[in-house]
Structures are given as C-alpha cells and as structure tokens.
Amino acid sequence: MAPPRSGSNKKAQLGVFTGYVVAGLGALLGAALLVISLLRPDAFNGLRTVASDAAAPIGQAGAVGRVQSRNIFDAIAGYYRAGSRNAALEQEMKIARVRLAEAEALRQENLRLKAVLGLRAGAAKPIAIGRLIGSTSSSARRIGYLSAGRNDGVRPGMPVTSPMGLVGRVLEAGAFSSRVLLLTDSESMVPVRRATDNVVAFAEGRSDGSLRLRLINLGINPVKKGDVFVTSGSGGLFRPGIAVAIATEITRDGAIAQLLSNPAATDVVTVEPAWQPEAVAALRAPLATPTKAPGE
Questions:
Q1: Could you tell me the end-to-end alpha-carbon distance of the chain, in angstroms, rounded to an integer?
Q2: How many beta carbons lie within 10 A of that of residue 248, not counting itself?
C-alpha cells in the first residue's frame, strides 16, 4: 500500500485555511459597513449614485422594451377590434341595402296601385259583365273566351277590363259568348303613356305573356324599371287611364313590360263601350270603303 502524499494534504489544509480567513475578513467588512451605515447613513450616497447611474441604461432599455411590447400588443388588439368593427359595418350596409330595396319595391307597388285605382275612378258604365271561361295556351295566338255575347250588348272592338287593368278587346261576338283578343297577342297594339307624365308609346303583344313598349319619340330612353303605363286614349277605342303594364326590362327603344291584368288570374271582367265611337268609326271607314280603280 502506497503511503499518503504529504504535499496534497498541505495544499488542502492551506485552501481550507484561506477560505476561513476570507470568510472572516468578509464578515468583519460587512459588520464594519453595517455599523457605518447605521451611524452615518449618508456615507454611501456616492456609491449608491454611481451604482444607480451604472444601472440606468439597463433599466431604460428594459422600460423601452416594455413600452414597445405594450404598443405591439395594443396594435394587435386594435387591429382585431378594427376588423370586428369593419365586419359589423359591412353587415349594417348589407341590411341597409336590403331595406333600401324594400323601400323602392314599396314605392313601385304604390305607383302600381295608384294606376290600378285610377281604373275605377274614371270607369264608364259597363255594357256587360262576364267571366273569362278559357284562353289559348299552346297556340301562337292569345285569345280569350268570354261568357257574354251579342244578346248582352257585346260588339266587336269593345274594350275588356278587369279590376287590375286592361285585358284586351272583343274580336268576335256570338249570341252568348265572345272571343277576346288579349293584350299579349302578337296582333294587339294599344297606345299607352307613362302614368306619371306624357311619355307615349305603343304596347305590342309578344305572345309569351309580356308586352313590348315601343316609344313614339325615339332618342334618349326615359323609361325606368317599375314605370307604370296606362292607356293614353289615342284612337278613341280605350278610355285614357286604364292600367296596362309595368316596365321590367329596359330596351333601346322602350322596354319589356309585365301585364298588370293577367288573364290566367282573372275571373270576372267588364265589357266597356268604345271611349269615342265616332273616332273609331272614322278610322274604320277608310278600311271598309273599297278602293275604286281609275275610270270606274
């Protein structure tokens, strides 16, 4: 067995002794500083100021970091708040657009109802009251059948109306029934005007349940969707002010219009006399008089 090394033991003992000496000196120094601070509190003001000055940049950097981080979090929170507010505003705008469309629809409905009310305000004494007992649906012609005829005073050319507006005119009259040329027939043409002013046009049947409004005065088209058109009284057959159609699609020379008095939804109708029989007779007279050849 090897004998212990005396050099290593001396180094260890010396290290332990040095540690005790340093600890004792530290304790004595701390006690002395404590006594001095109790007896003269202002003795270490300079040291504290130096230490504070030395630590100030570090504290300032930390404060800037806290402020910047708080600003970043505030910006993020503000971004999300702005996004939620924008979403709420967009929803409110959508609702407002719907309300605006509803208000415009109500305005157009009021215009239509005013035109329909004007139908009864100036209605003439009816010749006969009957029912639409049928109509063509597959044919290219649009003809309705009326349960009133010559025995009821019905004659060809007389206007046929319903509480919703003009339906057509009598084409042929039998003893107990009549054939009615509906407004949507391709041979039907009625002079009309816009209910709110004197924009005049012709309402032509399209054989598909709608009408084509052709303006008489071409140029800038003043017709708008929702405009109501009524009979103008030109020609003397239809009295003025009978509701006819409402514009649904604007074209270059007028509009496509929806018939207000739909024959498919019409039951009871009224046969009226011609508004100005003399004018109608004067228009038909040249057509009824045969043209003579020269020298006859």
A1: 169
A2: 14
Q: How far is CA 16 from the centre of its chain?
A: 94
Percentage of the residues of the chain whose pLDDT score is greater than 70: 64
How much is the pLDDT for 1?
47
Instruction: Quote the pTM value.
Output: 0.56
Give residue-wise pLDDT tens across range 73-117: 566 666 666 667 777 777 778 777 666 766 766 676 566 556 555
Q: What is the pLDDT of residues 45-77, one digit of tens each?
A: 555 565 555 655 665 555 555 555 566 656 666
For each of the domains in the chain, give its residue range(s) and CATH number, in order of start: 128-284 (2.40.10.340)
Locus of tokens 């239509």: 112
Q: How far is 172 from 272, CA to CA, in rounded Å? A: 15
